[in-house]
Amino acid sequence: MKAVLFALLSAIVWGTAPLIFKLGLRGDIPPLVGIFFHNLTAMVFALLSLIVLRENLQYPLKDIALISIGGFISGFLGLLLYYKAIKAGEVSIVAPIAASSPLWASLFAFLLLGESFSFSKIIGTILVVSGVILLSISK
Fold it and tell me: CA-CA 20 to 30 A from 58: which of 7, 16, 85, 94?
């Protein structure tokens, strides 16, 4: 139940972010500059949190490397593409399509991590794909 609550709260927080991004990107700020300030702010708050909570930073290099690669993929490449889409398009279309990431995460988890693919996951995936298609053609 705790995981579901945190996931729901993250969805609400992430649901507000595209509106703020769109407002910030309306002017002359290019997406790459937006990502710089986005990630700089996230880094400062993460660093302050680590200091305040006195977190241990000694972990296996392999784990840190994998997390860093994931950060590059999602925190840089994914955000760059997302910011470009937000700047060029409507938030009400871009955000739901970008939010189809669970579809890809589930597929990759099934193919690469050997996770199970149940009937409910298949139905959920079909619903996600259907929603993306509907949003894509709703112009």
Answer: 7
Domain ranges of the chain: 2-89, 100-139
Could you list the beta-strand ranges (E) of the chain.
none
Cα–Cα distance for residue pair 101/82, rounded to 1 Å: 12
Q: Express each pLDDT in 8-31 by its tens digit.
A: 888 888 888 988 999 999 989 999
Answer for the pair 97, 135: CB distance below 8 angstroms, yes or no: yes
Q: How far is CA 12 from the centre of its chain?
A: 13
Whether the predicted pLDDT of 51 surpasses 80:
yes
- Number of Cβ within 10 Å of residue 79's Cβ equals 19
Tell me the whole-structure pTM to 2 decimals. Answer: 0.77
